[in-house]
Amino acid sequence: MEMFDVLILGAGPSGLACAIECQRGGLRAAALDKGCLCNSIYNYPANMTFFTTPELLEIGGIPFSCAQTKPTRMEALEYYRRVAEHFRLDVRQYHAVSSCEGADGNFVVHAMDRLGRAVDFATRKLVIASGYYDLPNELGVPGENLDKVTHYYREPHPYYDSDVLVVGAKNSAAIAALELWRHGARVTLVHRGTEVASSVKYWIKPDLENRIRNQEIAAYFKSSVKEIAPDSVQISTPAGEKRIKNDFVLAMTGYHPDFTFLRALGIELAPGTAKPKVNLRTLESNVPGIYLAGVVLAGFNTNEIFIENGRFHGRQIAHDVAEKLGTAIAEVPEVAIPTANLRNAE
């Protein structure tokens, strides 16, 4: 069984940043991911452009250059691959973690590799940087398990000349609805709210509103899905229930961290928000030796932590771990992330 000073669960930007800082602190660290490197970014829409600028996505002090003002999904994936190569990070892709046992200084993590073989790892400290994108918020309606239903949108081509229902009206739903319409799909939008969400990117929101106003995209607000059938969908609207023809459903209803796994580790989650209990300075949870990094810190409020602020968590964690394990690392500021984002912190 391999032994590490720090084992990081998740190889996204926050997990990679943590691995870099631990390495700089003289710690033996590895990152496990059940998918590929930066699996969440890989599963973003194929043509996605980040809302932020490249320097705010940088980790490890490595510059991120891109062709335009804002980086694309492909450019981000290439950047993080090059960062992992530059630092020669120990990343174990396609290792799905099933459970963890032990205590501070002697944890054992049980995982399954790509070939279905059991693999165990021993570690003195554990970091949870597993993100949230793999666990969608389900609709909870009959028919949601049909093959035509997905919680992820990649590209518009497969939906050409089809009747597509998009559930939601935030960024992901707005982008999907517009791309689908522009590539020949007949799009209907269903949203519980009264209008397109105000948080939708400023250049996308008016575009979608104009398509709805021109009746190019059908929209039902203050409405919800009641049942999904093989060739139709039943929705509840202010005017009553309505059944519409349907080939595909894109349920863009958001995602959440793996709360079941966190609770199994003994981590306390705040009622209502499900934010884990952590020390604000060190990001160590209420379970000694277990730290949290990235969006997993936000509980249900996944719009509070992004790559832009989650990339600094590794510095805080590595400093505390190095100090406790007796290795040298440079000082970090007392508060490297906004305190408003961690209302359940100690």
Main traits of this protein?
single chain; alpha/beta; FAD/NAD(P)-binding domain; 2 domains; 7-stranded mixed sheet; 5-stranded parallel sheet; 22% helix; disordered C terminus
Describe this structure in a few short sentences.
It contains eight helices and 15 strands. With 346 residues, the protein is α/β, with parallel strands linked by helices.
Structure overview:
Helix content is 22%, strand content 24%. The chain is elongated, with a radius of gyration of 22 Å. The protein has helices at residues 13-24, 39-42, 73-87, 171-182, 205-213, 259-264, 307-310, 313-325; strands spanning 2-9, 29-32, 91-92, 96-103, 106-112, 118-128, 149-150, 163-167, 186-191, 218-221, 224-229, 232-237, 240-245, 248-251, 290-292. It folds into two domains: 2-135 and 255-341, 3-Layer(bba) Sandwich (FAD/NAD(P)-binding domain), CATH 3.50.50.60; 149-251, 3-Layer(bba) Sandwich (FAD/NAD(P)-binding domain). The chain has 346 residues and is an alpha/beta fold.
Q: Which spans have pLDDT < 50 for at least 5 consecutive residues?
A: 330-346
The number of helices is 8
Measured by DSSP, the beta-strand proportion falls in: 15-25%
CATH topology annotation of the largest domain: FAD/NAD(P)-binding domain
Question: What are the SSEs and their pairings?
Answer:
Blueprint: E1 2-9, H1 13-24, E2 29-32, H2 39-42, H3 73-87, E3 91-92, E4 96-103, E5 106-112, E6 118-128, E7 149-150, E8 163-167, H4 171-182, E9 186-191, H5 205-213, E10 218-221, E11 224-229, E12 232-237, E13 240-245, E14 248-251, H6 259-264, E15 290-292, H7 307-310, H8 313-325
Parallel strand pairs: 1-2, 1-6, 2-3, 6-15, 7-14, 8-9, 8-14, 9-10
Antiparallel strand pairs: 4-5, 5-6, 11-12, 12-13
Helix pairs in contact: 1-8, 4-5
